[in-house]
Each structure stands twice: as C-alpha cells, then as structure tokens.
Amino acid sequence: MWERQTNEAQVQYGAGAGGTNYYKFHEGKNKIRILAEGEIIATHFVGGKGYTCFGIKDGCPYHGEGTPKNEDGSTRKPAAKLITYVLDRNSEDQHPQQAEIPYSVVKQINTFAEEKDFAFSSFPMPYDLTVNYNKKASPNDMYKAVPGATREPVSAEVLDELEKVPPVSQIVERKKARAQKAAGVIVDLDEDE
Questions:
Q1: CA angle, 22 as apex, 27 and 33 as ends, to 5°?
Q2: pLDDT tens across 110-142, in order?
Q3: Distances (CA, A) of 100 to 29, 35, 43, 115
C-alpha cells in the first residue's frame, strides 16, 4: 500500500528500518482504524532529542558529514513514521486523531495488503488494526500489528469530522518548514499558516 512512499522516504530521508487530537500508542494492545493515506516523515535523534528531517536534497544538516553516529561509529538512520489520522477504537469518544504510525507497522500493513483477505485500495481502511506495543522489546519487535477480520464502514459523523481537519500534507510541510527554519535553511516562516 505504501511502497511508493516508503521507497521515496528511503531516497529523501535515508530512512530505514499529545492532546485529544493526537493519538499516542500506549503499552499493550492499541486498536485503531487508519482514516487517511498519510505521508511518511523522518526524525533524526541526536543527543536524545528528535529533529524532523526535511530531506537530503533540501539541505537537512543531519546527512553527509553531519550524520549522527551510533556508539560503535556506524551511521544512525533517521526513524521514519507515517503521519495520518486514526480512530482510537479503545476510546468511547470516536474522533479523528493525528497519529504517527511507526515504519515497522507500515511495513506490516504493506504485507497484509498483499493478501486478498486484507487488500484495500482506498481510505479509511476497511478494517481495524490491533497494534501491540511493547517498549521493552527490541526496536524491530516493539510494534506488532494484527489486521481485524471484520470489515465495516466508518460512521458518517467521523467522515464529516475528517473533512474538517487539516490535510496531512499541510501538517508534514509545517513540520519540515519549522525544521528548516531551526536549521537556518529558511528564515521566513509564518507559524499561523
């Protein structure tokens, strides 16, 4: 499903393996429905702090000579995530929430979508996902996704609310623009846009 975006994220970022309007995974089972296709974005972690990557070609300072290193001296790749909107199926209050879906979960969804029982071609996804989050597991095993067997439509109320939230592309562009401003690549940024 996100092969094009994951491949583009690899090229653009060198990526590899909050409030009521923001969804955050909690330890244990998280049942969600992905509402929008979303966009892949990457974050560099330097000195325990995260920095949004705005792309190799656009001058992100954490590539080339500025690439962060691991303790063993190897190159530290940025962490890629899918910015999208989800429904928190564990909550009684069903509203679209902005979420960052880990790259490993996106790859698992891509694998599900190859099977005819879980294939889909439009959003919202036709089924829920249960994502088990274990923060004590190794980075590759922290998030395990299981597709729901039941296909059911999202309510008209939720779809109406989804029409009123900012497009994911706008959220991603703002994050990148703020990162460019912080890096001194752009100097004029209207935060109210």
A1: 70
A2: 999 999 999 999 999 999 999 999 999 998 899
A3: 16, 13, 11, 24
